[in-house]
Each structure stands twice: as C-alpha cells, then as structure tokens.
Amino acid sequence: MSNKQNQWIVGINAVAAAVEHDADNVREVLLEAGAKNPRITEIESDARRRDIDVRRVNQQALDGVAGGLRHQGAAARYAAAKTWDEDELEGLVEAASGKALLLVLDGVQDPHNLGACLRSAAAAGATAVVIPKDKAVQVNATVRKTSAGAADHVPVVRVTNLSRTLRDLQKLGVWIYGLAGEADGSLYAIDLRGNVALVLGGEADGMRRLTREHCDQLVTIPMPGAAAAAGVESLNVSVAAGVTLFEAVRQRAAG
C-alpha cells in the first residue's frame, strides 16, 4: 500500500470525530478566529489535550483548504491512507484465500454515494472496493466525511481500465456478478461464498457496455410486484451495494 498522504477534512462533526477517535492521524486543526460556536471551543480543548497543533485562522484561510465544502469554521489536516495501486489487487485477492469479496463501482459520480458504499463495504468485511480513475468520483473530503472512517479501513483500488481489471480478476478465479435492473437472474439464486466481485453501475447510466460484457452473469435485486407496478426503477447505488454485500455476508455465515 502507498504511504499516507495529507488531506483536509472539514466540518465541525468530521473534525471533532477525527480528533476524538483518530488523534494519531490528525496533524493540525484550523479553527476560525473569533468563532462563537461552543463546539469550536470544545474541539480546541480536545485537540490541545491530545497534543494536536491548533491554529486560529481567518475565514479566508479555511475557505482555501475546504475546496468549496461547508467548513463551519473547522478543518483538520489528516494523514489518511492513500488508495491502493491496481497492481496490488492480485495480492489482496490471494490473501483472501478463496473468500475474496470485491465491490466494483463503475462510474459512481456522487461523493455521498461513494462514501456510503465504502461504509457498507467496510461493515461487510469486503476485501477491496474497485473504482475507475476516470469518469468517477475519487476519495475526497466529502467521501471521507460520508464514509465515517471507512475510507481508511477498506482498500480502495483505483484502476485505469475497468474491463481489463475484470478480465484479470477472472483469471484469478473471481466470479464477476453485475447488478442490472432488467436481468433475469436473482441475486438470491447465486452462490456468493467463494471469490466474488459484485459490480454496480453509476447513478445515471448504470454499468457501461464493456463492463456488462465482462461480467459472468447479470443479476437483479427482486422487488415485490407492487413496487415494480408503481414504477420503482432501481435502488440508490449505495443501498443496492449494501443489499448485495450483505447477501454475500449472509451466505458466508450460513456456510
């Protein structure tokens, strides 16, 4: 895995949580000078108690590190784990000893969705989350905030060519299942106990054509007839990821 890199996390809740739960990785805290919010004062006291450098700065300085996000007068420079290189994916699969569980996201654009997917992946004990380097959101401050720390606990592998990565995974004995609303097969009818990659498409267009073609099978999450009749097209990608991952968890627990 690559060395840690410094990133900025912003917002009172995110900074307070980092200081309280992961102080060793917080390099410094910036707080707005003259801020009257009592939670700002609490963050300052907590950070100083944990020997974290604290600086009071003007709003412009906070705006500069926040990159357009709402900082609420608080930011922290955080030594976060970098994403994994794609050539490390084979080692991750092999280390899983035939039980690899991969979440592959083809073009997720919303950082809140990616953050929620990472939370589900971490909770499910996923081996890794695979995302393309292009035409997809990357792990940024919003993703990190939404993931509630999961971005640092599940390997996020950025790949240049997703179709090629799926081919490489198949050569490693990984079965590739793509989630598609129009598929005939049911998620609940497939065996998810071995080496498995679960592929979900982006919010707007779903999986790209080449991604679909490299799946071993397309499956859907069955919905009750009433829901289908009401025109429910598809679940939010992060909800679908949670449902799919935890079906794999259920099967593995049942043996």
TrEMBL record:
Database matches in Pfam families: SpoU_methylase, SpoU_sub_bind
Recorded E.C. number(s)?
A: 2.1.1.185
GO MF terms, alphabetically ordered: RNA binding; rRNA (guanosine-2'-O-)-methyltransferase activity
- What chemistry does it catalyse, as a reaction equation? guanosine(2251) in 23S rRNA + S-adenosyl-L-methionine = 2'-O-methylguanosine(2251) in 23S rRNA + S-adenosyl-L-homocysteine + H(+)
Query: Locate the RNA 2-O ribose methyltransferase substrate binding domain: which residues?
Result: 8-84
Chief subcellular location:
cytoplasm
One cellular component term (GO) for this entry is:
cytosol
Query: Superkingdom, according to UniProt?
Result: Bacteria
Q: Where are the transmembrane segments?
A: none
Q: Report whether rRNA processing shows up as a keyword of the record.
A: yes
Q: Where does S-adenosyl-L-methionine bind?
A: 201, 221, 235
What UniProt keywords are attached to this protein's entry?
Cytoplasm, Methyltransferase, rRNA processing, S-adenosyl-L-methionine, Transferase
- Which InterPro entries is this protein grouped with? 23S_rRNA_MeTrfase_RlmB, Alpha/beta_knot_MTases, Ribosomal_eL30-like_sf, rRNA_MeTrfase_TrmH, SpoU_MeTrfase, SpoU_subst-bd, tRNA_m1G_MTases_N
Q: What subcellular locations does the record give?
A: Cytoplasm
Described by its record, this protein's role is as follows:
Specifically methylates the ribose of guanosine 2251 in 23S rRNA.
Question: Into which family does the record put it?
Answer: Belongs to the class IV-like SAM-binding methyltransferase superfamily. RNA methyltransferase TrmH family. RlmB subfamily.
Q: What is this protein called?
A: 23S rRNA (guanosine-2'-O-)-methyltransferase RlmB
Originating species: Luteimonas deserti
Please name the taxonomic classification of the source: Bacteria, Pseudomonadati, Pseudomonadota, Gammaproteobacteria, Lysobacterales
